[in-house]
Amino acid sequence: MSYSIEKREMGYLLFTITRSEKRNAINFDVMEGLVKAIQRSSQPDIKALVITGEDDRAFCSGGDLSVFHHLRTKEEAYGMLSKMANILYSLLTLPIPTIALINGTVIGGGCELAAACDYRLARDGIKAGFVQGKQAITTGWGGGSILAEKLSDARAMKLLMEADLQTVSYLKEIGFINSLYKGDSLQACESYFGSMLTADLSVLKSYKRIWVRKWEETKLRERIEEEVRNCSILWESDKHHDYVNAFIRKKQE
To answer: At what angle do helices 153-162 and 143-150 cross, to 10 degrees?
Structure first.
């Protein structure tokens, strides 16, 4: 199995991508695991959902191109992209707080996953970046539209258009990362939001509803759908397939 789901004593659910040998890249099994974690988080004994990666090399390196390389046409790409976009929108609008516990490098779709969470805690010294532009595509799981909700226009555009790795200290400065930590990741996470978990679940849900209502009224779901379709068109391009082929060859050397 490519993931684990565990209820912790403090009352939160911990979802871990367990593909450290693939730098915790997302495949279809991880997608199904996220669906299960989101469904489990709707139970009344869960007050928050924490998402992290196995080991400390990578939180998530995005979509696993060694799995998705067979997707050639925009129609084939759209199926995968829309599936993950639906998952991220469900994560974004989950009625309880969500935390991306970024314990290692996070790139591409991994940043989209982190953006869909309410809070992002990152280990000091790592790097992160929306690097999709260097793959001749855009964010395709809705991460660009979600990022536009979390940061100012200029800062979000700069991160997406430059497509570079950034230090987490810079990302904290501009507001993408909420807090940096050193040492044990779970201890840091529980210290960060421990007092939040003492609140009644109905209070947490009522506050979260404020943001969910805003996203519904501004038609974020429709904007994400447009982003997915635009990415599926770029996915079909020769430039993107050339990048993927070069990536696969390098991995096989």
So the answer is: 140
What amino acid occupies position 130?
Answer: F
pTM of the complete model? 0.97
Q: Which three-class secondary structure string do you get for the chain?
A: CCEEEEECCCCEEEEEECCHHHCCCECHHHHHHHHHHHHHCCCCCCCEEEEEECCCCEEECCECHHHHCCCCCHHHHHHHHHHHHHHHHHHHCCCCCEEEEECCEEECHHHHHHHCCCEEEEECCCEEECCHHHHCCCCCCCHHHHHHHHCCHHHHHHHHHHCCCEEHHHHHHCCCCCEEECCCHHHHHHHHHCCHHHCCHHHHHHHHHHHHHHHHHCCHHHHHHHHHHHHHHHHCCHHHHHHHHHHHHHHHC
Q: Tens-of-pLDDT digits for all 253 residues of the chain?
A: 899 999 999 999 999 999 999 999 999 999 999 999 999 999 999 999 999 999 999 999 999 998 998 899 999 999 999 999 999 999 999 999 999 999 999 999 999 999 999 999 999 999 999 999 999 999 999 999 999 999 999 999 999 999 999 999 999 999 999 999 999 999 999 999 999 999 999 999 999 999 999 999 999 999 999 999 999 999 999 999 999 989 888 877 7
User: Is-contact 53 111, C-beta < 8 A?
Assistant: no
Contacts of 114 (CB under 8 A, 6+ apart): 59, 60, 100, 102, 106, 120, 128
176 Cα distance to chain centroid: 12
